[in-house]
Amino acid sequence: MKVCIYLEFYHFLGGIFFKKIGTGLLSSYKNQKKILEGLSIPYLEKWDDSCDILQINTPWLNSLRLIKKARRKGKKIVIWSHVTAEDTQQVFRFAPYVFRFTKKYLAYAYGLADVVLCPSEYTKSLLLAYGLPKEKLMVQSNGVDTKKFYKNEKRREALRKKRKLEGVVAGTVGLVIPRKGVNDFLDLAKQFPQNSFVWYGKIYSSLLVKPLPQKLPANVTFTGFIDDILAAFNSLDIFVFPSFEENQGMVLLEAAAVGLPILVRDIPAYQGWLRHDDNCLKAKTAEEFRAWLGRLVKDGELRERLGKSALRLAQENNLEVLKRKMLSLYENLTR
User: Is 76 helix (H, G, I), strand (E, B) or coil?
Assistant: First the structure.
């Protein structure tokens, strides 16, 4: 058995589209490679006729060409549904104008697969609504590499010292785009001026996305892309993730693996695996965000309890667990 794992643009112009970005898509791709290595399954990252399975991440135009080529040669096709029309909104300025086209295109592209891997039950429900047959859809977490993400006091102390972070620090990791809840993050910071708020993640040009306000609250820092992502997570005491739309939200599993208490917006993607007052806190409104964050800032025992439960969640979604499910999928496809 051999798998061709393909992420369009990953190798284009030396990988310029994925350098200094740090997307969940790239993290998932790396996790997939680690799973194949752990299973001792040979894999390629560029198309080769010798493969038995073509595994696509985001089916853009060249991916469609490869899918059709692989299909003619009798190969099996697996596609990860990292993208939906819904999660492209509130990203780039032009996204709302192409929503209908994006939805139709993705329905067509995902329909070419033998199996579509959905990061959550929510993503599966969206694709069912697109008209994809239920038998093609398989819910599969992106997982988290607990050997890469873990509690590390040395990294924590070094980065906090470098950035002069003291006390209870709230923050997040991810692209600085409207969909991730930038305005809500800033509003929370204004209401907790005694606490530092840090956002680690790439800041896009104002030509592509709505820019940050010229004047930020004094207690807020947007760092841009950071190489030491483990230090970034460890520098925080509370992980705040006010995103409006996700398919899973890999940074949540990464924050959980570090043992951070998590505060999220209550959205459908988290139903069934993020549980309020167990492994996270969920907020529906700005008032609830403020109230729950106030509790977390003041209550160290609550932070510790939620962090321990979050860590258990990460362990349930680590790559060792995912390996067994993926092996079963590959074996069933190649029988």
Answer: strand
Q: How many Å is the Cα radius of gyration of the chain?
A: 20
- Summarised one tens digit per residue, pLDDT across range 176-227 is 988 999 999 999 999 999 999 999 999 887 766 778 898 999 999 999 999 9
Residues of the chain with CATH 3.40.50.2000: 3-143+318-334, 153-316
Pairwise CA distance, residues 174 & 184, whole Å: 15
CB 159 within 8 A of CB 235: yes
Distance, in Å, from the CA atom of 99 to the CA atom of 116, rounded to the nearest integer, reads 21
DSSP letters of 104-149? HHHHHHHTT-SEEEESSHHHHHHHHHHT--GGGEEE----B-TTTS
d(CA 241, CA 268): 14
Return the beta strands (E) in the chain as ranges. Answer: 3-7, 43-44, 53-57, 76-80, 115-118, 137-139, 170-173, 197-200, 220-224, 238-241, 262-265, 281-283
The Cα angle at residue 262 between residues 258 and 263, in degrees rounded to 5: 160
CATH of domain 3-143+318-334: 3.40.50.2000
| Distance, CA of 296 to CA of 261 (rounded, Å) | 8
Query: Residue 83's closest CA among 67, 50, 59, 66?
Result: 59
pTM: 0.95
In tens, the pLDDT along 265-286 reads: 999 999 999 999 999 999 999 9
How many alpha carbons fall within 13 Å on the CB side of residue 250?
Answer: 24
Structure tokens at 111: 């329909």
53's tokens: 């399975």
| Beta carbons of 8 and 65 less than 8 angstroms apart | no
Angle at which helices 61-72 and 99-110 pack, to 10 degrees? 20
Contact 155, 230 (CB under 8 A): yes
Q: For the structural domain made of 153-316, what CATH number should be given?
A: 3.40.50.2000
CA distance 218 to 159: 19
